[in-house]
């Protein structure tokens, strides 16, 4: 049964890239899967001048793109979907025209019986988030006397701890925290959620999930693309703000957290906040130098094609010191994780696109089988977030024959092996959750602030510290070799797909 109440989705920034590339396709898939409520209206809002018809045409074009993938979607079907879309042009001055917007919302509500249940999706430049919230509140559009009202806010949530706090206070002035949904699309990924299930629904992993058995944890987020058309935005952001502060620390919090009492939004988010607050903040220059490395991609030739260096990208300052590679080593100050190093890296223009978490277990206390292949190799649990979503366990097996020769073998599971492997796109999942009032996979204000608290000193050091280098790396390699200095002892980064002999069934597809 469809448990989604009748409602209206009001998208601010409806003429923008995110609406076109993510929101409309996600809505289309929900429509196709009959997950949208019976009475459902989308009202697009931005400054561009467009009629309902023109907006629908845009929607149809975007859905036609989907039609290639969804074979049974006829044009009629797509047009019926597009009929749910309306458009309101706010003109140049957002501040003055909310009266008109409120009237339009009310008319659509009356006509389509959306029960005065409204979601306001803010997909505009972040500087407008508070302004929009204020204007909505002045029109009474935050009032839940009749129907609920929710506001979805896109990243970035601030630029630093200070600006994040200011934004949270700004939003909370006009909407209650329970009405605010801060989207982090990594939380919508099936395999990120599977971290919780792997940990808390298997008795074989949780007893080992601590400093007694885990040697270190490694997280890699690599993209093969550069900054594409987003140079202007990215140059003011950099890898630490763009990926680490939000997506990667969200993953870290799911690995670090204690078992929640239950799977409710409140309990899971409480534990995540505690986890983020236990990250050891690096304060002095020596610690920051020893535990952080940043890099920037250089021009190169990949598969015979010349690719630009970061500083040559459109919108990027030719002398930019913005990092496209960030590697951070850190510790977690609590009972479970004391002295276990976490190594997290994120970068653009890597050899491939891959995100994975590797739990490296300690070697057995005593080596019974001398000269075995396992002596210099640990047991690993690899959680592949994307692509080839799945789990791989590396463990020792006896080589058949005389004596005890031990080799490392792979035990793997792929989502694609499941009979029902229709993995929902992250935006689809998150939109549906917000429509149903489930905030579990959305970030709470205190989570966002705790993440900034950890990241701020690194950003400050990279900006103002003495002798801070930014290392160049050729596009298409695994980052600057200088990042090896973070690793303790003889550890090496696991570069997925680099050693196919070791990774037979779990190699990365370019
Ligand atoms: N694109 C992406 O992949 C991702 C985007 N985001 C976030 O989503 C948000 C939107 O991003 P994206 O769609 O890429 O951005 P775009 O620049 O493509 O779109 C921005 C939208 O906001 C409107 N807008 C721009 N300036 C103003 C202004 N001064 N006053 C009122 N409206 C304005 C624009 O419409 P008009 O000019 O007609 O008013 C447009 O519809 C941003 O916060 C971004 O950080 C987050 C993750 C990924
Ligand atoms: O939020 C962002 O994420 C994308 C990577 O997302 P993925 O789902 O493709 O892994 C990244 O390219 C972008 O710079 C960042 O803003």
Concise summary:
With 510 residues, this protein is of the alpha/beta class. 32% of the residues lie in helices and 20% in strands. The strands form three sheets. Strands 16-15-14-13-7-12-11-8-17 form a nine-stranded mixed sheet. The protein has a six-stranded parallel sheet with strand order 3-2-1-4-5-6. The chain has a two-stranded antiparallel ribbon with strand order 9-10.
Q: Can you give keywords for this protein?
A:
single chain; 510 residues; alpha/beta; Rossmann fold; Dihydrodipicolinate Reductase, domain 2; nine-stranded mixed β-sheet; six-stranded parallel β-sheet; 13 helices; 17 strands; binds NADPH dihydro-nicotinamide-adenine-dinucleotide phosphate; binds the ligand O=C1O[C@H](COP(=O)(O)O)[C@@H](O)[C@H](O)[C@H]1O; Glucose-6-phosphate 1-dehydrogenase; EC 1.1.1.49; glucose-6-phosphate dehydrogenase activity
